[in-house]
Specification:
The complex is a heterodimer of chains A (237) and B (166). Chain A has 237 residues and is mainly α. Chain A folds into two domains: 13-101, no CATH class; 110-234, no CATH class. Chain A is 46% helix and 4% strand. The radius of gyration of chain A is 23 Å and the shape is elongated. The mean pLDDT of chain B is 97. Chain B has a three-stranded parallel beta sheet, sandwiched between helices. Chain B has 166 residues and is mainly α. In chain B, strand 3, helix 8 (135-147) and strand 4 form a beta-alpha-beta unit. Chain B has one domain (2-164): Rossmann fold (3-Layer(aba) Sandwich), CATH 3.40.50. Classes of the chains: A mainly alpha (237), B mainly alpha (166). At the A-B interface, helix 7, helix 10, helix 11 and strand 3 of A face helix 1, strand 1, helix 2, helix 5 and helix 6 of B. Strand 3 (232-235) of chain A pairs parallel with strand 1 (19-22) of chain B, so a sheet runs across the interface.
């Protein structure tokens, strides 16, 4: 007679932790149908996929769950949740797993992007540099393209209707990519502004899995936008 | 990144006085309202366009509505006949493989393996230009194009809007 797996002594600390921080996680709802796997670009990489990840909880494979690199190949794109007949949010479970790792055991660059963003922006350049780059690129455009001599790129303009941010990559690596957006806004004629205090649209602190860091960076943005009195917050990506 | 703000405001119940909007929805609204006039007349060579629906903006963000806006803007800018859609698309689209911190995490081989479905999907359209409205998508789509020997150019949407402005 074949042996059956004895689940009576399986480890449950991790399951209980997930249930505590994410009560709607519904780990036990999985029907093992595999709908999640069919459209998952991360399926089979590191030997895992969303369905197998849920099975590992059921089987109490805690060490494997806490050590797999798959949680950084899964991009938390949400397609598995979109396809799941039981609505299980595997991505959010992945975030919880990421957040359980001590900071020094997380991918260094990922954590660094968040730490830098907490301090101001994800590239770590001083805010004065952002202000300088915007001014410099604006001046250059006005001079080189006479038809755009009236182009504007306002910063810290209190009472502007729209607050705008940019991914930090633009002012730091490809500043010329800011110009087309300025031209569009100019043509439409909206009243907009950047903030010198928070201008990065990236929000990396969602990714390492610490909701507190995510909340902290978001609260700073809310403070900045509301202090300017803008009616709309435009995200550019 | 759109979702982090949208979902964060909800999850942490942060009081705020502004309305949170995507630039993509605004482009579409401005074109429809006649405040942003564009024409595809520049596209005399019939450059073909396709699009990457960012997971965080479409599936996890506003949904199909913003994916439709994105397509509307591209069609206006590039010409109706010059837009070739991907399949699956919109809320059912494949992730590019670079989001969620994957580009920052450093497991390059895994990231490119994860991007293979996206490469095949984009390659199948035969498009010359892939519009990527998200920076993670932009970096990843450009990288998988180089890595798997694709030929398209990976660009933001704003460059083409300016080209089409009349």
């Amino acid at each position: 007679m074949e042996n059956t797996i004895d689940l009576s002594r399986r480890k449950e600390e991790l399951r209980n932790h997930i249930k505590d921080v994410f009560p709607e996680s519904n780990l036990d709802y999985c029907l093992t149908c595999g709908m999640c796997v069919s459209g998952c670009p991360a399926a089979d990489i590191e030997g895992l996929d969303p369905r197998k990840l849920l099975r590992m909880f059921v089987l109490g494979q805690e060490e494997e769950l806490l050590s797999t690199r798959w949680i950084y190949t899964c991009t938390v794109c949400g397609r598995c949740k979109h396809a799941c007949p039981m609505g299980i949010d595997v991505g959010r479970i992945v975030y919880v797993l990421r957040g359980m790792r001590p900071k020094d055991q997380r991918p260094a660059n990922l954590q660094r992007s968040c730490e830098l963003q907490k301090a101001g922006n994800s590239t770590g350049i001083p805010n004065e540099d952002f202000v300088w780059v915007v001014g410099d690129v604006l001046e250059e455009t006005r001079q080189n393209e006479p038809e755009w001599a009236g182009l504007q790129a306002p910063i810290d303009k209190a009472g502007a209707e729209y607050y705008l941010n940019q991914n930090a990559k633009e002012p730091t690596v490809e500043p010329e990519e800011m110009v087309p957006l300025w031209k569009i806004l100019h043509r439409v004629g909206i009243d907009w502004t950047y903030s010198s205090k928070w201008w990065d649209g990236a929000n990396y602190c969602l990714f390492p899995g610490d909701p507190k860091d995510w909340e902290e960076t978001l609260r700073k943005q809310v403070e900045v936008v509301d202090a300017l009195g803008c009616r709309y917050y435009i995200n550019t990506e | 990144m759109f979702y982090a703000v949208l979902e964060g405001l909800r999850r942490f119940k942060i009081p705020h006085n502004f309305e949170f909007v995507s630039i993509i929805s605004l482009y579409a609204r401005w074109i429809r309202e006649g405040r942003l006039n564009v024409s595809s007349a520049w596209n005399t060579e019939g450059l073909k366009f396709t699009v990457q629906d960012p997971c965080k903006l479409v599936r996890q963000g506003i949904g199909d509505e913003v994916a439709e806006d994105l397509r509307f803007v591209i069609r206006q800018v590039a010409g109706e006949e010059n837009f070739i859609d991907v399949w699956p698309n919109k809320s059912n689209n494949y992730c590019c493989g670079g989001g969620g911190g994957a580009l920052q995490s450093g497991f390059v081989q895994n990231r490119r393996a994860c991007g293979k479905a996206k490469f095949q999907q984009l390659q199948a359209t035969g498009a010359d230009v892939v519009i990527t409205p998200c920076h993670n998508c932009h970096t990843q789509v450009k990288d998988i194009c180089d890595h798997y020997n694709g030929k398209w150019q990976t660009t933001h949407l704003w460059n083409w809007i300016v080209k089409a402005m009349i």
